[in-house]
Amino acid sequence: MESTTTKPQISYDMSPYLLQYTDGTIDRLAGSERVPPGFDPRTSVTSKDITITPGIPARIYTPTTTSTTNHKLPLVLYFHGGAFVIASPAFPLYHDFCNSLVSSADVIVVSVDYKLAPEHPLPAAYDDAWAAAQWAAAHAEGDGPEEWLNDGVDFKRIFLAGDSAGSTLAHHISCRVNGSCFDERVCIEGMILIHPYFWGTDPIGSETHDPRKQMVDRWWSYVCPSDKGCDDPLINPFTDGAPGVEKIVCSRMIVLVAEKDILSERGKYYYEKVRKSGWKGKTEYFVTEGKDHVFHIFEPDCEKALEMKRKIASFINQETD
Length: 321
Prior knowledge:
Belongs to the 'GDXG' lipolytic enzyme family. InterPro entries: AB_hydrolase_3, AB_hydrolase_fold, Carboxylest/Gibb_receptor, Lipase_GDXG_HIS_AS. Residues 76-296 form the Alpha/beta hydrolase fold-3 domain. There is one protein chain. This protein has 321 residues and is of the alpha/beta class. The protein is built from eight helices and twelve strands. The strands form two sheets. Strands 4-5-6-8-7-9-10-11-12 form a nine-stranded mixed beta sheet, sandwiched between helices. A three-stranded antiparallel beta sheet has the order 1-2-3, with no helix packed on it. Helix 1 (92-105) packs across helix 8 and helix 2 crosses helix 4. The longest helix is centred in the C-terminal third of the chain and has 15 residues, at 303-317. The mean pLDDT is 93.
């Protein structure tokens, strides 16, 4: 006898990321794989899982050895990509990237496992990112809950970094720090925006003729169903109600884009607007030709990914005035 059970129908198709069904269940098509932390023999980096606050896990990475006894390292607060709906610090490709970043730049990384939509609608991810920044800053006196930060971090050298959706989170933290409880013990030195996920209702540049724009419009409406659409301040840093870029607290930033990425025009636009805004910091811009969105995550050992990672390490470790 055939079953009379009716299979749920797809109510929303956000391929290649996820499918949502009429019964409310979610099927994530990518980004759900997980690897454990530990010692990575390829990079000599050690990682472990921690809890920032209840409901906000993270994975922290440190070089297994440092070149100088009692040498304090920069801290990179990292936010992974995934369109706000997939991935985590334990996703193998992000875990490998953070190992590589720690090894190449000689830093400590905290990779934040912020909550994902649609189960946790935006701005949940933004709130988690801000909570992570506050938690990190609370270690500045050396008496925070995480010994790797207490013992190993130079809190005058914090970097906010992320790719895709994670870049958006880094930008918002950099604006929110202005006028907050952060004090002179903590310095956000730089911001690293890798293929940033900024957007807007009106197309700019090549977006005008790019059929992928409608796809990105639809994706944003799914993760953030607000009445402002793609001009919500959470995704458009230059719309009404968005914090002005003059609030960015770091002294320097680098914006990295990929030539074939639908988001590359927005990254370039962001860089140019900040550079011309009167903001007093130093801006850098880096284009990878012939590559698409977050290629360095999926092709980590290709020459252009290695070149990009060298650029990021150089940016972190460059001499400042």
